[in-house]
Amino acid sequence: MHALVDRDQLGFDQIPADYMFMMTCLDSETFSGGSFRPYQKLELHPASAIQNYGHPEENAHRIKMGADRMCMTSSTPEQLVHDVKQTILANKHWKRGLNFTAGSSTREGVPHSLYIRPLFMGTGTVLALGPTPEFSVLVYAAPVGNVHKARISLDLLIQERFHQATPGWTGGIKSIINYSQVFKPIKEPKAEGFSNVLFLDAVTVKYVEEACSCNIFIVKGKTIPTPTTKDTILPGITRKSMIEIALTYSYQKLEETYRVYRCNIPQFYNFEQVAVRLVLVKDLTLADGVFCTGTAVGVVPVSRITYQGKG
User: Fold this and answer.
1) What is the rounded distance in angstroms from the CA atom of residue 84 to the CA atom of residue 114?
2) DSSP labels, the chain
3) Are the C-beta atoms of residues 243 and 277 closer than 8 Å to each other?
4) Sign of torsion, CA 104 107 108 114?
5) Contact by Cβ (8 Å): 63, 49
6) Gap between the Cα atoms of 24 and 31, Å rounded
7) Contact (Cβ atoms closer than 8 angstroms) between residue 102 and residue 108
8) For 292, which of 155, 176, 214, 308 could close a Cys bridge (C-beta 3.0–4.6 Å)?
């Protein structure tokens, strides 16, 4: 191929040389060996982490918002909804297999579901810094149980050293860069037995933002405060649904939602309002209750929060 290149016309473009080197390593191993092969397209599993931590799930309109922020050409919300529906229909035979069985290893009462994951990816070739010229949409399904398995409540650690997002960044959208950066902050806490970490704002380090995979609510008397999203907190769809349920059906309906997930929660009065506002760390310590929401976790109460070594 090198003989065909006009060297006088070279820019910083994607003109591949003939061979590329590739080496693969499992997490428990070390890199070694590897081989050269002709330059070619990579074959990736649809569930490869490099793609899936950038998934714009749940809501087609949120894809559009995220795509605009990342300079990507998106499909229309109507197109994506159609694609999701067709994926569900193509995998509808899984419905029977998700019923509880006598030999099931999943605790009775924990819901099974068919998780639908849309992916929106830049798949065009590019070498220089800039938007890709090609985009792809992929939708796949996976049977799932409870993301926290046997846990019926969460044990959270407030993370002060690392932050999930900063003002003006991409914390308010579904983007791959918002997920890979939380692996380090959560690795050690999980090894110590915590189920998740709770991030604080990057400017003052005193306001609660969100956990790495879910939004947070607190219960105080007849009010449910939850952090305002702005541009550093992802506006979760489950979060939005919880706010609507609390405002429309009062606490009784919210309690029924908890019961679906077999959560034991304390009894409170009917809620008068949902307060979307800045939430201080001390608000957590003074709360009557705390719970998290998310697509994967559903609705789950928080049993303990550890801050500066105190739980």
Assistant:
1) 12
2) -GGG--GGG--SS----SEEEE----TTS-----EEEES-PPP--TT-HHHHTT---S-HHHHHHHHHHTT-----HHHHHHHHHHHHHHTTTHHHHTS--TT--SPTTSPPEEEEEEEEEE-S---SSS--S-EEEEEEEEEE--TTTT-SSEEEEEE-S--S--TTSSTTS--GGGTGGGHHHHHHHHHTT-SEEEEE-TTTS-EEEEESS-EEEEEBTTEEEEE--TTTS---HHHHHHHHHHHHHHHHHHHHHHHHTT------PPP-EEEEE-EEHHHHHT-SEEEEEETTTEEEEEEEEEBTTB-
3) no
4) negative
5) no
6) 7
7) no
8) 214
How confident is residue 216, by pLDDT bands cut at 50, 70 and 90?
A: very high
Q: What is the residue extent of each domain of the chain?
A: 49-144, 154-306
CA distance 53 to 118: 11
At 195, list the tokens: 């189920």
Taking residues 14-35, what's their average pLDDT? 73
pLDDT(102) > 60: no
Q: Average pLDDT in the 178-187 region?
A: 80
Provide the annotated active-site residues.
Answer: 174
CA–CA separation, 218 and 302 (whole Å): 10
Give the model's pLDDT for residue 75.
Answer: 74
Burial class (CB in 10 A: 0-12, 13-18, 19+), 196: buried
Least confident of 124-128, 153-157, 173-177: 173-177
* pLDDT above 60: residue 42: yes
d(CA 196, CA 192): 11
- Looking at CATH, the fold of the domain delimited by 154-306 is given as D-amino Acid Aminotransferase; Chain A, domain 2 (3.20.10)
